[in-house]
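ARCHIVE CARD
Drawer: 12
Card no.: 0347
Subject: one protein chain, sequence and derived structure
Cross-reference: see card 0346
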Amino acid sequence: MFLSSTEAANELGVSARHMRRQAASGRVASRRYGNVHVIAERQLQMMQRTTHRGRPWRDTTKRAALDLLATGATTELAGSERSRLKQRLRTVGANVIAGQILPGRTTLRSASNTSNQAQHVPSIVSELGLSPRGGLGVLVATNSSLAARRARLGVDDEGNVVAIDGHERHTPVLEAIALYAYGDARENAAASTWLAAAQAAL
């Protein structure tokens, strides 16, 4: 289901102008029909779950955060900068992590059939205690757009597969972040718990 920018703004409790700016800047995927931006419900859900305050992280900070959450160590930052990031990661919510990591690196895609979607079941699905059938798929690749085209996944704002640009070593963390932001209530709760455990382990 699609909502106009005014309806989406009412859902989020922000102005319609703010929503139009978010749509025009690409922060939230939208389509434009005439002079009206329409936003998919799943995109609106992602926006609700990733809202946070603060400046956007630099690319090195994002890579360091993914390294720390995936392996507990990083070479991207050193000394007090790394210590401050670890402390920040321990204390922030999953919404901040998702809101800092996801923008500009995800697209929603649709698998043409169930067997195609089954190829993109997240690797951490059993860790999360979720069923491998029927849930949201996640594709992590250095160039996710190219990988999605090769996998015959069409662009769809209400899609059932999230394509994320990222490195293979960050796959579990990126899958958890995608499930947190785009998944249904069960996937969101399970991914939130998984991320909290990764944060506590720092």
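Annotation on reverse: The chain has a mean pLDDT of 89. Residues 2-50 form a domain with the Multidrug-efflux Transporter Regulator; Chain: A; Domain 2 fold (CATH 1.10.1660.10).
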